[in-house]
Design goal:
- With 609 residues, this protein is an alpha+beta fold.
- The protein folds into five domains: 3-182, P-loop containing nucleotide triphosphate hydrolases (Rossmann fold, 3-Layer(aba) Sandwich); 195-279, Translation factors (Elongation Factor Tu (Ef-tu), domain 3, Beta Barrel), CATH 2.40.30.10; 298-373, Alpha-Beta Plaits, CATH 3.30.70; 379-490, 2-Layer Sandwich (Alpha-Beta Plaits), CATH 3.30.70.240; 493-604, Elongation factor 4, C-terminal domain (Alpha-Beta Plaits).
- Helices cover 25% and strands 33% of the residues.
- It has 13 helices and 32 strands.
- The strands form six sheets. It has an eight-stranded antiparallel beta sheet with strand order 11-10-16-7-8-15-12-13. A six-stranded mixed beta sheet has the order 2-3-1-4-5-6, sandwiched between helices. Strands 22, 23, 24, 25, 26 and 27 form a six-stranded antiparallel beta sheet that branches.
- Strand 31 and strand 32 form a beta hairpin.
- Helix 7 packs across helix 8.
- The longest helix is centred in the last third of the chain and has 21 residues, at 570-590.
- The radius of gyration is 29 Å and the shape is elongated.
- The chain starts with 5 loop residues before the first strand and ends in an 8-residue tail after the last helix.
């Protein structure tokens, strides 16, 4: 097709601002789906996406649109992207395959934290952006005020904002005309050889790996032998197609087009997102610019949820994890062993929502119940090695921290956090950020009623309940976005937890030295409530190195062994009590403490009231 009649664009926005609904409406207006086939969240085909009302995976669709002036039809390739901060990696991949973006802003809520981040992502890729005000038909809509907000915060002209309602279809036809008029066509091919960028890949049980590609130079045809330039593997193309939104086979893909490729690829590890596909018989000399690999920042352990450590439960969990990794290449896993929980997997995630989604998909799609340990972040540790040489290592689990005597310094990830909030909550949020070791950076007015606060806060202070507390403090009106900007050394120590004088590595944590005693004491109080009483006394201790910094005790059950001794000499009772005392001492040495799942989650509680 003529390049001038192709438009590639993404739909980007904050959560719940109407991306998926707008995508549904575009499909209807271009007659890609009939009235009978139309339904809400058409492109969100995962059960979890439909239940939670969020987009997790970006979806690429090709539609044909005939302009109002009656000219030749245009090919529109658009990608509906996720809005949550954990999936911004999906957004950046989608933008790489486009020349433009539709930035959707809710006409009732205005510019939010992810709106700013996604706009900057698109500007960083040199994309043409069309700002769109959605939900203009709601009674509380303030389109003129929000248009001025967009101009003030993002720098787009308020007059360029299009007014639409994705729900009712108002202004959607005008938006398509603007896409044709304002977004640039794909660039002309710069080399004669074929080059296509892989921007996503999913695994299908029957067809193997389905590779989503964007053509930049040359053509691909069914039957071509192609080579992945990064991994240097070759495959024979058995099927090419586009999603319209149903899979539709085509014989070839030309420059500027997006589509999917199937070539009997059996393993998702054989495909690298960001790699360049070229022809085996006439390969390109230079690959296209790819992507940075995803950077996992949150780690936790998954173990089979069973009281007896059965091997088959672990095998079932292994199958579920391996199968899920075929469809989600952005989380990592490796086998680990814990004295308390048996065999399991240490997994790395892009963020806390990503971790939550993976756990739920494991339980649903894999049919396994999992016990999850407290999430931790990546630490960079400088240690003194042999002959005094300083080495740097990454630690994802407090249990892996080397001997404190050899540690020179521990660095933790620092996030730049941007918070959008109504004016009346600024003071409370500043106190929350300061309590989490935050460093104030800037404060910007967004319209007359809201402000944007910028802080630098350690990731470890954010990952558990920071977002929940922010939402609670601002009555649900506050939004946040965070990005890891650097690693910074601080006074960090490992707090070990000893139960009945034995270390339980799954309960250990890394925290700031000034807060270690408070966190340790609070953790022990929680554990005392969660661990059931046994027939012997259980000491709970928190320690840094060899120094105990806090202690709690779970009292043992006391059976009344003298109940049957009525009357007679007191020495009979004393003999029975001494015998009981010896038995308890022996039981304390050989008895094992049962630790419930709730106790492992107690590590998450920061001790704030």
């Amino acid at each position: 097709m003529d390049l001038s009649r192709i438009r590639n664009f993404s739909i980007i926005a904050h959560i719940d601002h109407g991306k998926s609904t707008l995508a549904d409406r575009l499909l209807q207006v271009t007659h890609a789906v009939s009235e009978r086939e139309a339904r809400e969240q058409l492109l969100d085909d995962m059960d979890l996406e439909r239940e939670r009302g969020i987009t997790i995976k970006a979806s690429a669709v090709t539609v044909m649109y005939s302009p109002e002036d009656g000219g030749e039809p245009y090919m529109l390739n658009f990608i509906d992207t996720p809005g949550h901060v954990d999936f911004s990696y999906e957004v950046s991949r989608a933008l790489k395959a486009c020349e433009g973006a539709i930035l959707v802003v809710d006409a009732t809520q205005g510019v939010e934290a992810q709106t700013v981040v996604n706009a900057y992502l698109a500007v960083g890729q040199n994309l043409e952006i069309i700002p769109v005000l959605n939900k203009i038909d709601l009674p509380s809509a303030r389109p003129d005020d929000i248009a001025m907000e967009i101009e003030q915060v993002l720098g787009f002209d308020a007059e360029d904002c299009l007014h639409v309602s994705a729900k009712s279809g108002i202004g959607v036809a005008g938006l398509l005309e603007a896409v044709i008029r304002r977004l640039p066509p794909p660039r002309e091919p710069v080399v004669d050889q074929t080059r296509a960028l892989i921007f996503d890949a999913v695994y299908d049980d029957y067809r193997g790996v389905i590779v989503y590609i964007r053509m930049f130079d040359g053509r691909l045809r069914v039957g071509d032998k192609v080579r992945m330039m990064g991994l240097e593997r070759s495959y024979l193309v058995t099927e090419l197609g586009k999603y319209t939104p149903k899979p539709t086979r085509v014989q070839e893909l030309g420059p500027g087009e997006t589509g999917y490729l199937i070539a009997a690829i059996r393993n998702l590890a054989d495909v690298r997102v960001g790699d360049t596909i070229t022809l085996e018989r006439d390969p390109a000399s230079e690959p296209l610019e790819g992507y940075q690999p995803p950077n996992q920042m949150v780690f936790c352990d998954f173990y089979p949820a069973t009281t007896e450590k059965k091997g088959n439960d672990f095998e079932q969990l292994r199958e579920a994890v391996e199968k899920l990794s075929l469809n989600d290449s952005s989380f990592t896993f490796q086998a680990v062993h814990s004295e308390a929980l048996g065999f399991g997997f240490r997994c790395g995630f892009l963020g806390l929502l990503h971790m939550d989604i993976v756990q739920e998909r494991l339980e649903r799609e894999g049919g396994v119940e999992v016990v999850q340990t407290a999430p931790t972040v990546t630490y960079k540790v400088r240690v003194r090695g042999k002959e005094g040489v300083i080495e740097e290592m990454e630690v994802h689990n407090p249990a892996d921290l080397p001997d404190a005597a050899n540690i020179v310094e521990i660095s933790e990830p620092i996030c730049q956090v941007e918070i959008m909030t109504p004016n009346q909550y600024v003071g409370d949020l500043m106190k929350l950020c300061m309590d989490r070791r935050g460093v104030y950076k800037s404060q910007t007015m967004v319209g007359d009623t809201r402000q944007m606060l910028t802080f630098e806060i350690p990731l470890a202070e954010i990952i558990y309940d920071f977002y929940d507390k922010l939402k609670g403090m601002t009555s649900g009106y506050g939004t946040m976005d965070y990005e890891v900007v650097r690693f910074s050394a601080d006074k960090l120590v490992k707090v070990d937890v000893l139960i009945n004088a034995e270390k339980v590595e799954a309960l250990s944590l890394i925290c700031h030295r000034d807060r270690a005693e408070q966190r340790g004491r609070h953790l022990l109080i929680k554990l005392r409530k969660e661990i059931p009483r046994h027939q012997f006394e259980i000491p709970l201790q928190a320690a840094i190195g060899g120094k105990i910094i806090a202690r709690e005790t779970i009292k043992g059950f006391r059976k009344d062994v003298t109940a049957k001794c009525y009357g007679g000499d007191f020495t009979r009772k004393r003999k029975l009590l001494e015998k009981q005392k010896e038995g308890k001492k022996r039981m304390k040495n050989v008895g094992s403490v049962n630790i419930p799942q709730e106790a492992f989650m107690a590590v998450l509680d920061t001790g704030e009231e």
